[in-house]
Sequence to fold (166 residues):
Amino acid sequence: MQTVQATVDVTWRHNQSLGSLYNRQERFGNMTRVYYKEAVGAFVVFDVTRGSTFEAVSKWKHDLDSKVKLPNGGAIPVVLLANKCDQKKDGNEDNSSNMDQFCKESGFIGWFETSAKDNINVEEAARFLVENILINDKGLPSEDSNGDTVKLDQETVAAESKSQCC
Fold:
């Protein structure tokens, strides 16, 4: 019997996805549990042109950690995005070693300078997050614990490959 794992392809509209998430957090201060339901990974986005948004990053991360956990009780992978890197920065958020240290201390799995407008590092950040989600997924109960897994045996594969279309 053979287990087949699906390939994950993440596609989004940059301005809508990043902007939508960012605006909700900024407007409401924190997000309700309904936004986190069954989340397996997240981005926390701050605006490098407005230092006050970086000051809120720790609060947003704490809010995430308190409201969503992996099935094994661990924290979901969270990537920090320093958005609007195509514009002039406000403050010292551009110091890579400081950002690396901040992420390590705050529980982020990594960070990227991004520009949703110019599509800078958006795909790379998404790929990094998805790779980490898949790594976590390997350690979680799967196969027999849910109905989403498809197992194929050689006879089924051989029979399907011999069938012809209309």
User: Anything to note?
Assistant: Residues 122-138 form the longest helix (17 residues).
